[in-house]
Amino acid sequence: MKTKTILSVFGCGLLFILMGYTYSVTRLEKEEDRFQKDRKIFEETHRASFDYFWELGHPVSGLTPRRSLKNKKYEIGIGASGFGIQAIIVGAHRGWVTREQVLNRMLKMTDFLENKAVRFHGVYPHLIHGKTGELIHFGGQDGADVQETSNLMMGLLMARAYFDQDTPKENQLREEITKLWEAVDYTMHEHQNALWWNHSYQQKENKGLKLLMKGYTESMTSYVLALGHPSKGIKKSSYRGYVEGKNFVNGKEYYGYTLDVGKPKGGPLYLAQTPFLALDPRDMEDQYTYYWKRSINHSLINWTYCSKFAPKEFQYNKEDWGLTASQTPSEDGGYNNMAGPGPKDKGVIAPSAALGVFPYVPYQSMLALRNFYENHKEGLWGEYGFKDAYSKKRDWYSDRYLGLDQGRTVIMMENYRSGLFWELSKKVPELQVALGKMGIKSPKHKNGFPLAVIEKSSKSVQLYRHPDLEKYHLDFYTDKDATISFYLKSTKAEKKLEIQSEQKFEAGLHQLQFEKDNILAGTKGILVMKMGKKEIELPVQLF
């Protein structure tokens, strides 16, 4: 009798073990299926967003329409065209189109920009006609637009770095880009130790939209180019207007995240995107901030506000999130340039906000991407991916695409995938000269995981497998040549999972990659970097 009881208990125990094992295996299989679906959604979104620039490029100029409205495709956005140049380079890099096709499109663009498009001392207006190159008035502007031109020039310089082969066509393209770039006269916009945003030839001083570029804005792009210009650049002292302007130095904490520089609660997310479409924030630190961590904090503030602190009527959550400049319902004005956490929020989500911060917060961005595709596809998805915006409060979906927003999506998704433009920018000497003048240098890291930022609610760094690598990845640093190993320690038990056995690394920044193995989504643990007797710990949550 006693033997039967023991066997019965043993059998029940074994059954529970087998049930637990089966449950874990089933969960892991479902998670793998979920991940493979995410990869397909990611690729489809990236490719469709690229198609906006490839298919809608103007037949005469090759340049990018400001928006997708059928009766307005002749309205070429100069800044959108700069983003478009980078976007079609992504197409060549991904093999969606050929290098030769992109090269031919680029030569069409540079010919039009040189011989047809209106310029003022080398600076283009905000909008031009795609067939004639004539100025189109925009928001009271009737002259040169420095920021839009800088976005264009940055795109051209990325193309000059990308098309580096010694062939007749690529040599020609590089020469034509250099000619356009060197014709830009930034000194015409230098004023009071700063830059004018736009220059009017009809309006008087300080009228219309003639604003000085001061404070933390996307105009960092303009200052980098204006300071790095080989012949018509501004004085080093004129950078003072930017860093001494309103909303540059901040230093306050929002939802547990400190913003060294920038608007209260960060403002629209394009401020964490536009300057870094080309410039590598991982390698940029000055007396004010480390731009990589600043961009992560900005992104997490935006996500935390949407998931926890926004007005309930907006119906945001951890998946419906992302505030940036976008189209809005007509009753809300039709466009909101300063959408962000707080009083400027009108209850409108812009997909480009969350998708354009994939390099900083891939887990949160993937939550949004999956949600947009699976829960809003009927209203939000079209032939060029996700349309510009939606509002759950008003049951409203945008009817159009905006070139600037599409561009940020394509480019930043690529920087997440490969760091393509962050590496190309290091091949542009003018940019390196400018960063030196701005006091921006490579950061001085400490041993460990210096690029990681802990998400406050989970008290961990949330890791999501990279869609191309299909692995978790995390940067680590050693200040000297060292033998290093890594293991994952459970927070609930003393179990250890070896991630990487001992290996020699040279001093510098490296990337740790490891497989999912049998790790269940949501698993929390401590990632340990072992250097001799020293162990450096980082709390992580794996999805």
TrEMBL record:
It holds the Pfam family Glycoamylase. InterPro entries: Glycoamylase-like_cons_dom. It comes from the Bacteria. Residues 213-428 form the Glycoamylase-like domain. This is Beta-glucosidase.
